Amino acid sequence: MEERRRGDGEGEGAELSKKEIPIGGGGGGGVGGLPDWLFASDGRVWLLCLIFRVVNALLVQDLLQPRRALASLRGRPPRRFWVMYGHLTWEWKEGIRSYLHPMVFVLLYKVLSFLHLDVPWFMIKAPRLLQSVFASFGDLFTYKLSYVLFNKHVAQWTLFSQLTCWFMFFCITRTLSNSLETVLTSISLFYWLSLACIVRPTSAITWLYLGIWEFVKADDRYKFLFLEVFPIGILVLVLSCMLDWLMYGSLVFVPLNFLKFNLLSSGGDYYGTHKWHWYFTQGFPAMLLTFLPFSLIGIIHSKKWRPSGLVAWVLGVHSILGHKEFRLEFQVCPAGASLALMFSGYFLAAVPGCAPRDHNRKISSFFIRFPSRKYFMLFLIATNVPMALYMSLVHQRGSEDVMNFLAYEARDGKVKSILFLTPCHATPYYSTLHEKVPMQFLDCSPTLEKGALDESDQFMRNPTAFMSDMVGNWSLPSHIVLFDSEESQLRDFLFSHSFSEVKRFFHAHFKVDRDLQASIAVYALTEEERQDI
């Protein structure tokens, strides 16, 4: 497969290099001041990406989707996951999640336990460090795919775009299934294998487009169907079903359940809807940010309609669904990185540069009018790096900080049980606190009953009334976690039940989808009361 892909791609790349961006035989030269020897082999490129992503993982201090982190790291049937505590999220009860992704981290936890490294710091950081290794391979194959489609010089600038894009920095090292899906899709596009479908069935949207395109263009359509599509598709489905059958304990066809819930019953709409054009007008532009105009110019000028059409196709299909999130468009980041950002790399490779070698190459008449490449580099770095650092280090970090604090407190035996009075899965729970500590939190599982309010909605509407009803039959916790937006209404209630503030963490400077949650507080029972639990 690789040879066929390389053969086709090199033909396109050679033609493009001659006609549109002739760069001295297809490339060479360092990028952004990096020495040429870093790009001398795939191994060196991968090592560069690995070092960058490890630092990336260590710098990410907040949570984008706590519920997804929980589903990946601790949402499982206990008797089947080798750990005897945790929370089973509703997705697993509905059978719409494959076990492949969580099993990766279960194995990691077992290794840490065997090495006696199952302490809070390693248990918290290790999953993201492992994901950083996966992400480095995604970066490498984005580079390789760009090399195949264009040439080495474009590939180098595609890698620059990949590593400096704020959204990639913000998301790719997280333990979301979408992150691994992104990596697998990048690899799959290079090798022509639909690996990502095992992790998330939504990847089938990408391969439906590519399959139809290849089928229409194929010289021997029967050979294409029966020697490529069916064997690969059947292999992926069989492996996925066997793993899920083993882990669920019964025959569960995850892709069908996923389709029924998200498309046929519109179950995802329970968590909110957006206009049909949201991905095109808000989601994708926000993800690319200042790379967007360069990507558009690259798409138009390169005339590579198949890969650019894939971006439009995936965004279009997802636009049919009412429920939309930034993390869902992360699934098209192979089309947003190896494709949309790849076209940004095409633009950066084509504009005039400052190095002596650039003066010896012929610049396209279209790109000759642009200023020197260094100004575009500085502009992209200045607009993406601060955004990446702020979103990763500052914005909404309280959810993770509070769990880190509780993890160390629980390790020291100071936490008996926790009640989370926060919106739906606002903290990562057991994916950060790896101790057998009972937790209570507000349920927000979807329901088919229209207009019905879940516990989270009821609490947010009237915190005082909700707690007055709850206190009659609750199991008194040793600690309560809540945001300052609700704390002001419950402070008297907390004091009257012998709770006092023990820690407060900054959370955000501005509101996102609800009232401003500037900080998150931890309240604990007095020592005397705690000993009576």
TrEMBL record:
Q: Which GO terms describe its biological process?
A: GPI anchor biosynthetic process
State where the protein is found.
Answer: Endoplasmic reticulum membrane
According to the UniProt entry, where is the signal peptide? none
Give the top-rank taxon of the lineage listed in the UniProt record for this protein: Eukaryota
What does UniProt give as GO cellular component?
endoplasmic reticulum membrane
Q: What Enzyme Commission number does this protein have?
A: 2.4.1.-
* Entry keyword annotation includes Transmembrane: yes
Any idea which GO molecular function terms this record carries? alpha-1,2-mannosyltransferase activity
Q: How does it sit in the membrane?
A: Multi-pass membrane protein
- Keywords, ordered alphabetically: Endoplasmic reticulum, Glycosyltransferase, Membrane, Transferase, Transmembrane, Transmembrane helix
One Pfam family in the UniProt entry? Glyco_transf_22
Q: Which family does it belong to?
A: Belongs to the glycosyltransferase 22 family.
- The entry's protein name is Mannosyltransferase
The scientific name of the source species is Spirodela intermedia (Intermediate duckweed)
